[in-house]
Specification:
By secondary structure, the protein is an alpha+beta fold. The chain contains 3 helices and 5 strands, in the order H-E-E-E-E-E-H-H. Helix 2 packs across helix 3.
Amino acid sequence: MAFDILANMNYNQTPDFWNSILSRALIEGRLTVRKIDDFGYRVPEPSSSGLFRRSVGEPKGQIADWRASIEGSVRGVHVLEYNDRYEIHVDSFDPYKKPLQHILFDSPKTGLALLMGGVGAVLFIKSLRRKK
């Protein structure tokens, strides 16, 4: 479901805009914000708010990932930036505060890939030692 920004939202007040988005995401769990709203105005970038920092995420066609930590909570807000929109969702575990839990519960594909890579590395090292 796309989140239509209210017409009275002042985009020049960037922290207020992204604070509103962050609050809405915490209530709804996930939402989409178009980069250009129905009135033809461009919404501010997450980086300009001071709330979000550049991050990484599972590749899903996005051009950038942004994350915000929630003070007093283990949850975090993840923004996936696409050419025409931002997709926002709430992670159960903020990767900066609880990285292991984040990988296990919010990004299990990454956890599985890391596990497989670790097992592969161990097997490779063992095979090299046997050859000596």
